[in-house]
Hints:
- Helix content is 30%, strand content 25%.
- The strands form five sheets. Strands 1, 2, 7, 8, 9, 10 and 20 form a seven-stranded mixed beta sheet that branches. A seven-stranded antiparallel beta sheet has the order 17-16-13-14-15-12-18. A three-stranded antiparallel beta sheet has the order 3-6-5.
- The longest helix has 14 residues.
- It comes from Microbulbifer celer.
Amino acid sequence: MSDFPAQADVLIIGAGAAGLMCAAVAGKRGRSVLVLDHANKVGKKILMSGGGRCNFTNLYTAPDNFYSENPHFCKSALARYTQWDFIALVEKHGIPYHEKTLGQLFCDNKSRDIVDLLLAECREAKAQIRTRCEIQRIEPLEGEGEGEGEGERKGFEVHTSLGKVVCESLVIACGGLSIPTMGATGFGYDVARQFGHHIIPTRAALVPFTLNKRALKRQADLPGTSLAVTASCGEGSFHEQMLFTHKGLSGPAVLQISSHWREGESVVFDLAPGMDLCNWLSEQKAQKPESHLHTALAELWSRKLVQFFLQLNGLESKPLKQYHESALREVAEKLQTWTLTPEGTEGYRTAEVTLGGVDTNEISSRSMESQKQPGLYFIGEVLDVTGWLGGFNFQWAWASAHAAGAEV
Ligand code: FDA
């Protein structure tokens, strides 16, 4: 006889960050919980996150670190399950961690520690988990039709490759579209549409830029080279590292600004962020008038980069004394407003997250329950809530999962 449960109080589809967290919270309330995932193992994105060390939260998490058509939506869940709550859980499990930069907390050892934490919490909550399970069909169950409750929804019947499950609450925790090879699908959006939800158009975010052939040829010597920049586009501006790649540009500054960028738009890079470069060049001229421009700039960047930036901007390198103040101002301006139009992005193949998703105007911000279908919940990345780079996306997964887990 199959050990596949035919009934559960709570059925969660997706055994990623949000699904496992929700299972633990709901199970500890005494609800019987079943988690199903089509992948061969749970938490694949957690395992590959943060370069294998999982940037599991950010000390400075605040609603401003998230993009959504409905920016107020995330506030309630983030306030009720904070970064400090997740840090306390990490400490309870004795997982060593450190702050890398900008409040980003990483495991000292491996991302596996976070998956093990979630699995231990699920075990304690007696939540059952099944992988390699394809979800075939979801049917809402009607009420008995007696008196007032006539037509009231009474849970769901979910048909899967492992069998049929009847549940009271159904939680969709399928994540977004990024990295299909890790098991990402648009299934969560399909379920949302099935129940009449609107989907905010999705796009790859936290993703490297690609450049055209000409630009790539110009930077052929630079892949692997990085420098601190401020990258700006639209209302976004990020001061972090930028990395030259064989396909274009990457690094935290580029990943961050990609969430603001739209096809055809330009991105402006300040290559000497936080500096008054014009003033600095004037000082260099006063102190070392015989020194060439490229020698002076080599105090800021590697010689390879200096050569690239000078060539790119059609600037010749002469002794500093030969530059009038206006010429130095022009050099500084060119280097502090390097404007570039990416050809595109690497797309969902390498994107860390998906912008857009299930419209949160149709979801309860307290419980994550659908306002269109009682008993149906959406949590994590499938919703139109997308964090900046730096641990914010996991914090959203934990917080939204906790909000739903307390209600399902
Ligand atoms: P998640 O993607 O974790 O889980 C969804 C689950 O649903 C998966 O297990 C999938 O197999 C399953 N599923 C999908 N379709 C299904 C179907 N049809 N049937 C059954 N199951 C299905 N964030 C951060 O805060 N810090 C970081 O360090 C990183 N690093 C990082 C690196 C890389 C390479 C990526 C791709 C992403 C990150 N992120 C990150 C983002 C973070 O991983 C992401 O936001 C969360 O994992 C989202 O959690 P969810 O539970 O919503 O989805």
